Amino acid sequence: MNKLIKNLTSSKIKHTVEQADLYPKIESSIREHAKVQDDLLKRAECVFAEEVASQQKQLEAAKATIKQAVTSLSPIDTPDLTSQNWLDFPFNTQYIPNELVIGYQELVIDGETLKMPVTVPFMSGDDTYYYPVQADSLEWTQAALHNIIMRLSVMLPYGALFCLLDPAKMGENFPYIKQLPFKRPLSNDISRTLEEVLDDIKRIKQNYLDNRTRRLIDVDVEIRGNEKFEFIVASNFPKGYDRRSIELLAQIANTGSVAGKYVILQHNQDIELPNGASMEWFESLKNIRASENHIPAIPSLDMYMLASESICDETINTILDGVAKAKPKENKLEFTDVTDTDPNHWWQGNTDHEIRVAIGGTGAKKDDLELWFGESNGRQICAHGMLGAMTGAGKSNLYHAFIMGLACRYSPDELELYLIDGKQGVEFKCYPTLPHAKVVSLNTSPDLSRSVLSELVEEMIRRNELFKREGYENLRDYRRRTGQKLPRVLLVVDEYQTLFEDDRDGSGSDLMEKLATQGRSAGIHMLVGSQRFGASGMQNQQSIFGNIHLRIGMQMSEADVTALQEFGPNGKRLLRACKEAGQVVMNDSAANDDKNRAGRVTYLSDELRVDLIKQLAEKWQQQQGFANLHHSILLDGSGQPHLSENPQLEKLFSTYSAQPTQDDWVEFANKPEHEQGLGEKEWYPVEKPANFWLGREMNIHGQASIVMRRRSNEHLLFVGEANEARSGMLSYWLGQLPINHAQNDYQLYLLERAIKGSPWHGIMSRTIETCCHSEVHYRESVSEFASDLGNIKAEFERRQSMDEEQMLAQPTIYIVVNEAQRATELQQQSGRYGVKEHGDLGAIISVLLEQGAEYGIHIVMSFDNVRAVTKVFDRRDIDLFKHKIVLQMSEDDSFSVIKSRHAALLQQTTRVPVYALYANASQNYPVKFKPYCYRDVEDHMNELNLLNNYLKSWSN
Predict the structure, then answer these.
(1) CA–CA gap between residue 696 and residue 709 (Å, rounded)
(2) Cβ count within 10 A of residue 108
(3) What average pLDDT is seen over the chain?
(4) Three-class SS state of 268
(5) Does 395 carry a binding-site annotation?
(6) Is the keyword ATP-binding in the record (predicted)?
(7) Is 781 a residue whose pLDDT tops 50?
(8) Is the peptide bond prior to 238 cis by the omega test (within 30 degrees of 0)?
């Protein structure tokens, strides 16, 4: 500015300016402008100072943030593993290492040196990293591998699987390998191990990956479950590796990252590769220490080794001890992920073609793993299915998910279920109230299992006859053309090998073959399961398995997988990968090895299952009304039946509002058992038939009953030591007299010889007081009973003199003796020449046994042992009892009473439940059943009161 003014005062310029009278004005303007510039400069200096101060403040804050970040690094992010307190570290969470800490960079802040962690992209990329090694750095880089292995163990305590390769020193470079919780078993042939890794890559790609899900790391954790990420670490490579193993390792490195397989090499560059091998085979090979790999790039990199051996061992041991105790969070695919549990959306499915429901998911979706039976729209057929799984593999949960998924999708009009728990199983105990459940069988014995199959074969025959009669070929055509909702039937059998146990005549195999080969057209399908696919004693296996299109496998032993014929090589490979509960391999194309699908089964909790069953039952009840409440047929192989659970008895009282007429009885007796009738074709009113239920047969519909008529030898004998069974059957027999006879149509003469004060005394009197409303003569004294017998004999003789029509009009007389072994007056006595002869009472009984039944006089006697029977009756008299109920006894006693050894086999394997045999002189084989037993006074009275209420409904 001063220079400018000085120039203006020069003579030449000054003269010019003065002449123009401009000088004062210019000088004033310049000085004013200079002042403004000075002000601006001062102001700029102030602004700069403020900016410098602000930047300094920000720098200080950044330094503090960096210091805080470095000092508060999580142990998994810190470069120095030896400086951490691993004893307090919670090994219970997985951290996916998209970036992996491999070392540190020193950063000096205010004279303080901070070690900043340096990372490389890891699981988020496809690179294969290697450590370049010369002889002098071999030990250093080996320690670097230890660092990485320990860091991955901490980050993935239950998600990391290690394949540690050290063929040159046979694993010596990884001394802690035994402590790793998850490691791949190594064989002497390293190529075989690497081939197994490649098989896993193929399996994971097949099972989890598709166009929507391209990497295992992106698969939903509920689907992925505990599928492990594998880290293949090769020590001192390529020493000890042949050309084949290098080729395989390169193939894993190039293709494995998408399947969760990551390769890290310690590349000893002093060792030449085998002939023909090349490092160029590794397409994405990168030096882990090169600056271009780091974020951000740095000029140099330092790395912690695990220091001295003592510190190294202590750190490694502490880390691996913590990893070993880590408990993974249970990742479950929930039932609600695959099934709509809103009742408003239920029962939308139609079973014309098939039944189909999702039971889980694969890698792409949560609900794309489906079980189905029938004929798909593409005309593929899936008639039946078979499930093999070892204990703990999740077989029961699969059943529940399948059953409840079907129950939510299809209404009971569309689908009926027959559920059988073999052996001691009670998995299906919650299903009797499920409206779809037609039959639920628990603790099912072999003969009971076979009876369910027999019922389904009969149902199949009935349906096929219906289709033929109506002019249709199968269920699909019948439903589509008639509009009738004849439901499909699904039989589910757990532990299906029980079908073939103690099956000398092969009926179980025969029944299963019939259902397998003919059931589909009738809409009847099977899903059977066991610990392995085949079953001992199973005949016609080729024919049966040829019609089982759906094969389902879960976790199985290696020996069982190797022996499988139901899956091909690819299926076996997938099955070997099923290491935890819920993993499943399915094939719905009769084991076509290209059609295997693997995934995870949804988890259905007990609480949700029970709640859904309740809601389903309520929904069905609202639709059907209280008049048609659902009652499944419950077959409990471990317990005794109740008379109140008898469907035939319930049907009788629900059908007829008053005592049935003769025509009513004919109708009810002729009705088949599957319609809750007696299935008795020979029911002639002129014979005054009377039906008595004594228990439940070992089949679906059969109720153990006897029909006593006015025919010769129509008498009943109970023999056996089980007091609860004999007393129960006899008391309920007494309680049913008013069902069969009007009030004045029968007379009862009862001699009760049970010991007073015993649990069995009072049972008969309670029954008579509660249920019997006709002429009853109850005696506990033999002398009083003798007087009754005299009157009965006179009545018998009177009836003999009547014409037939008059005799038939007389009331039926029942003579009952309970605990007859204590009525010694009935026993035979030694007569002349030592020959046993009947006494007076015995003689009357003998005459009535031979001729009384034809005149309406029936004898019912109960003994606790066969020896007591033979004291009263000789062999000829015993044969006069047409109806015999026997309990467990010796083989000799069994032959004495029923002329076979069957009674000696009743409780051969178990004492509970109690079994009985009904032997009828007109039958070829005795019928095994579970009798109505006396439990206690309260239970007995509850049953009697229910029976009495039924009877009152008729009288009202």
Answers:
(1) 21
(2) 8
(3) 88
(4) strand
(5) yes
(6) yes
(7) yes
(8) yes
DSSP sequence for 667-720? HHHHS-GGGTS---S---GGG--EEEEEEEESSSS-EEEEEE-SSTT--EEEE-
Distance CA 715, CA 845 (A): 11
Q: Is 491 exposed, middle or buried (0-12, 13-18, 19+ CB in 10 A)?
A: buried
Cis peptide bond upstream of 296, omega within 30: yes
Residue in this structure with the two tokens 């799984």, named with its chain if needed: 389
- Is the confidence at residue 310, as pLDDT, over 60? no
Alpha helices in 72-189 (DSSP H): 138-155
- Name the residue with higher pLDDT: 132 or 73: 132
Say if residue 396 carries a ligand binding annotation.
yes
pLDDT value of position 918: 97
- For residues 665-681, one letter each, b for 16 or more C-beta atoms within 10 angstroms of the residue's C-beta and e for the rest, the string is bbebbebebeebbbbbe
CA–CA dist 912, 636 (Å, integer) = 11
Q: Which residue has the higher pLDDT, 450 or 774?
A: 450
Q: Is 394 one of the annotated binding-site residues?
A: yes
Print the SS3 string covering 597-627. Answer: EEEEECECCHHHHHHHHHHHHHHHHHHHCHH
3-state secondary structure of 929: strand
CB 934 within 8 A of CB 728: yes
Q: Domains along the chain? A: 2-67 (no CATH), 83-324 (3.40.50.300), 349-620 (3.40.50.300), 711-951 (3.40.50.300)
Residue 18: predicted pLDDT? 46
Distance, in Å, from the CA atom of 104 to the CA atom of 301, rounded to the nearest integer, reads 6
Count CB-CB contacts under 10 A for residue 267: 20
Q: Which two tokens stand for residue 848?
A: 């009535």
Angstrom distance (rounded) from CA 887 to CA 727: 12
| Crossing angle of helices 937-955 and 723-735, rounded to 10° | 20
Look-up: residue for tokens 């009973």?
785
For residue 524, give the 3-state DSSP assignment.
Answer: strand
Model pLDDT for residues 247-277, shown as the tens digit of each residue:
999 999 999 999 999 999 999 988 999 999 9
CA–CA separation, 608 vs 321, rounded Å? Answer: 38
636/445 Cα distance (integer angstroms): 9
User: How many separate helices (H) and strands (E) can be counted in the chain?
Assistant: 28, 31
- Among residues 646, 699, 633, 689, the alpha carbon closest in space to that of 666 is found at 689
3-state secondary structure of 424: coil
Q: Which whole-number Å values give the CA distances from 803 to 171, 531, 855, in the listed order?
A: 105, 69, 11
| Residue where the block lists tokens 């505990």 | 226
Has 392 been labeled as part of a binding site?
Answer: yes
How far is the first Cα of the chain from the last one, in angstroms, to the nearest whole number?
132
- What is each CA distance from 199 to 183, 216, 252, 448, in whole angstroms? 16, 15, 10, 45
In angstroms, the Cα distances linking 774 to 338, 386, 746, 813, 814 are 62, 57, 7, 11, 12
Q: Is 579 annotated as a binding residue?
A: no
Contact 160, 231 (CB under 8 A): yes
pLDDT in tens, 272-293: 999 999 999 999 899 887 766 6
Which of 123, 226, 234, 217 minimizes the C-alpha distance to 181? 226
Q: From CA 7, how far away is CA 287, in angstroms rounded?
A: 70
Which residues contact residue 597 at a Cβ distance below 8 angstroms, ignoring those fewer than 6 apart? Answer: 207, 362, 369, 585, 586, 587
Residue tagged 């491999």 (tokens): 102
CB 346 within 8 A of CB 408: yes
Whether residue 698 is annotated as binding a ligand: the answer is no
Backbone angles phi, psi at 638, to 5 degrees: -105, -15
Which letter does DSSP use for residue 933 in this model? P
pLDDT at 52: 67
The answer to whether 914 and 724 are in contact (CB under 8 A) is yes
Residues for the chain: how many in total? Answer: 956
CA 693 to chain centre: 36
Q: Any idea which of 112-126, 521-535, 870-884 has the lowest mean pLDDT?
A: 112-126
φ/ψ bin of 762: left (φ > 0), alpha (ψ from -120 to 50), beta (otherwise): left
